[in-house]
Design goal:
This protein has 3 helices and 4 strands; from the N terminus they run ββαααββ. By secondary structure, the chain is α+β, with helices and mostly antiparallel strands.
């Protein structure tokens, strides 16, 4: 738990002593924010003639308005974050799926290359055997065997 701090602040021309678990800088920042709201209200001549109670209510309404607008923005950002996290999850899932497909295809390629190698060896052996059995040759265009004439 944080240590309790205190700060002397000036709000609306009066000195207040604030205490809390936030830093002194934060407490000064809050006081500054309230002073800016008071100054906004006092900029208009008609607002200066209002009662202190009415000014206080208007300042409270302005602060509440700022709060709700900021909260709405934060909520929208939270929804955006959740959507982005889902999108990221889906993309990661797609990536894993693609990697698995790639691995499967690489295995298939390796198997087919091995089969091709075995068939090439077998073809070479058969060609050698045919040639050693009397000079028969295969015609590459139609696959029929022709006997060589000597």
């Amino acid at each position: 738990m944080s240590k309790k701090t205190s700060a002397t602040v000036l709000i609306g021309g009066k000195i207040y002593s604030l205490a809390g678990f936030e830093s002194e800088e934060y407490l000064q920042k809050v006081a500054s924010y309230i002073n800016s709201k008071i100054n906004e209200l006092n900029e208009s001549e008609s607002n200066r003639r209002m009662s202190a109670e009415m000014k206080s209510i208007l300042i409270e309404l302005n602060v509440a308005d700022d709060y709700f607008k900021t909260k709405r923005t934060a909520d929208n950002l939270e929804v955006d974050i959740q959507e982005k996290e889902k999108e990221l999850y889906d993309l990661r899932h797609d990536l894993v799926d693609s990697q698995m497909k790639q691995e499967s295809l690489e295995k298939t390629i390796a198997k087919l290359q091995d089969e091709n190698k075995q068939l090439t060896i077998e073809n070479a052996k058969l060609t050698e055997r045919v040639q050693s059995m009397g000079g028969e040759d295969t015609d590459s265009s139609d696959g029929k065997k022709d006997k060589k004439h000597k």
